[in-house]
Amino acid sequence: MAKSSATTKTKDTQTSGPASSIQPIMNQQFDAPKPLQKYGTVSQRLPIGLDEKTRQQSVTQLNQLLADTMTLRDMYKKHHWQVVGPTFYQLHLLYDKHYEEQSTIVDTIAERIQILGGVAIAMAHDVAELTTIPRTPRDREEAPIQVSRLLEAHQIILKNCHDYAKQADEAGDDGTNDVVVSDVMRTNELQVWFVSEHVVDTQLVRSE
Ligand SMILES: [Fe+2]
């Protein structure tokens, strides 16, 4: 009995009356209250045994690493699309593999920032403002130029990794130290190896 009356009610609201007047409330961002948390601040919401000064230092450094990693990730996709030449197939596939691996690192860094009580940057305009990797032109470039740009970006990230890992270790933020070394540094070092071998000046048809 109860079941049949519920069915009838659903049918009624679908065809007439109140349901048709339900509308999403748009444009709420133009009359927004204060944000839940301002960028640049750290909260102590999660009890992870780290003081505010340590969290702040790690969040600032991780946001720098995040901006540079997002830039490198997107540079890999640009080159994946635009590569030409005799090594097209190898590089096309390798660039996309590295793009996927950098995407995984991006998520790991951003979530570490949230765990520390910070606010992770996310949008392209913020990434562009924060990154220290030199701007890549919109033009299509030769493969060796692409590789040189990628290696430069990797090196900027790796130098920061060494610095940030040491500081996180000294401050007692072992989780951040692990993310920087195990996820970011190790992956970047491996990618440098694979990319570098494409610009080694070597003979192809005769041994030296
Ligand atoms: Fe693709």
Automatic annotation (TrEMBL):
Residues 1-24 are annotated as: Disordered. Residues 1-16 have a biased composition (Low complexity). Residues 60-204 form the Ferritin/DPS domain. InterPro entries: DPS_DNA-bd (IPR002177), DPS_DNA-bd_CS (IPR023188), Ferritin-like (IPR012347), Ferritin-like_SF (IPR009078), Ferritin_DPS_dom (IPR008331). It comes from the Bacteria. It holds the Pfam family Ferritin. Belongs to the Dps family. This is DNA starvation/stationary phase protection protein. It comes from Hymenobacter terrestris. The lineage of its organism: Bacteria, Pseudomonadati, Bacteroidota, Cytophagia, Cytophagales.
